[in-house]
């Protein structure tokens, strides 16, 4: 067994798949990068509750449903079922965090501070503007948009748990009423055509179909006014070519020294390291050595949140 398997502690169980709505399930299961085949799905759902089997089956096409029902009949050992469940839960780990334990995600983003220069550099696209924050999560970037003068921010997010956290945060301050949380996804933004000046998405929109892709970009263009901008903050490094091929311009902020994730406490850093970075033993080694609640992005093996792409619409 690899040392990363020993450390990584996926806290979810197969019944947690009940948390997803049909739209999210369809999108995740249809996307080739999730690599969840019908066979794997059926193996993982072997001997689970009829309610869960029905919930998952309802998100499949009639042909997939037929294959799924056939695969469910094959006898499996308990170990084979456990292995399939582990694969499914690891592949859906981040979606499960967003939907099932949004407060853990909130704890992580609190410490993952975005480079201040990003918002300074896009301030003219925010001040007095109507902004869409697509894939807003619990509002990390939405609140930054307000701080930099946005007149209104539509914060669109598919996870009900994160949306609930965002609504609670918005209700605590008069000023923050300028943020309007809305349920939606990249491919279904609940706003009229050409209704926002600037669309942003922070650590959310990617080239993958279930996280934006071609259809998502077309939808972001639809709601953005002509002469407006689409700004993708902290893109995935593997999408650089995709954004460039779609006429985006790249901006990266200079940094002095290292950027780090700053946790509330050392206990919180240990807990988050086990949960979010458990596949990388260097993170835990680092924490044990420094005994401080900060982890440099270079130790985590992630590009720091210092860059963005922008596109003139
Ligand atoms: C890494 S989090 C970033 C959240 C927030 N923008 C931030 O910076 O903290 C990714 C977010 O994208 C959302 N997301 C995933 N798939 C999505 C989709 N198809 N459409 C819109 N948002 C999506 C997730 O629910 C999650 O809130």
TrEMBL record:
InterPro entries: Flg_Motor_Flig_C, FliG_a-hlx, Methyltransf_11, Methyltransf_Superfamily, SAM-dependent_MTases_sf. CDD domains: AdoMet_MTases (cd02440). Residues 11-91 form the Flagellar motor switch protein FliG C-terminal domain. GO terms for molecular function: S-adenosylmethionine-dependent methyltransferase activity. It comes from the Bacteria. SUPFAM superfamilies: FliG, S-adenosyl-L-methionine-dependent methyltransferases. Residues 132-232 form the Methyltransferase type domain. Pfam families: FliG_C, Methyltransf_11. This is Methyltransferase type 11 domain-containing protein. It comes from Dictyobacter vulcani.
